Fold Lipoyl synthase.
Amino acid sequence: MALVLDLLSQDRRPRHPEKAHRPDQPVARKPDWIRVKAPGSPRWAETNRIVKANKLVTVCEEAGCPNIGECWEKKHATFMIMGDTCTRACAFCNVRTGMPDALDQDEPAKVADAVAKLGLSHVVITSVDRDDLKDGGALHFARVIGAIRAQSPGTTIEILTPDFLRKKGALEVVVEAKPDVFNHNLETVPSKYLTVRPGARYFHSVRLLQRVKELDPSIFTKSGIMVGLGEERNEVLQLMDDLRSADVDFLTIGQYLQPTRKHHPVIRFVPPDEFKSFETSAYAKGFHLVSATPLTRSSHHAGEDFARLRAKREADLAAATSRS
């Protein structure tokens, strides 16, 4: 009986205890250009069934992604490993915060099984921040990558990792597992870190991405930000320069959408023509691939984007060979 009561009390825990006493923020009405189809198709239901049968967590659900209907219709899901509770408390994020449970040692096999059942040619694996673990969960990432490789050798793997802040040697463990794409999001411009991403350090994140390329130049690197948090245009352009200095290949830019009244408010809905302008600037600065639209998210169209990245690299190598 005590166990049942304990479980019930856990279920009633606030999703974001650190935000519970903050004043409510206004929730702005979404403009016409931010509209998505509600999920519910038979293929969406099949993806949902496989995810639930394997007792997996997806960032699609936990973060309230607006593209879940479109992606799950295509049997594309972004798996969130190491539980559903994050040790950070970012002002923009809807993932539960608190002290996480112990790692599920069977999770790598469960993820690999779901990837095989969904028949994924490209999979995205992300995680909560696990500052409670000595390696930040690096070895667990490596085990998941290895399990997928063993069961689905033809599947390409994209990871979206935490920053492994103060976790010496963690990045090297993940890179050694050789994901095809290493993504780590800056999320916002440096002037907004104190209020938006207080547990992180902007230049540490930039250096993390640079270090991936130094360790293994064959791995594609990727990063993303949200706009509409009060940033200035010139700050976004400077962030692009910082990422290109770190040799990052792929940039995503999307509109921030406020999950609840306790989260950071939307300061502005950026119109589509400004996203197009950001895309033009990013390509001019040398990114190999750019996705900048109001509904762009890190793993949206990830498989198609990876194919474009690989084709771009092959074309560049062919051009360099012909010149020599």
About this structure: Residues 1-10 have pLDDT under 50 and may be disordered.
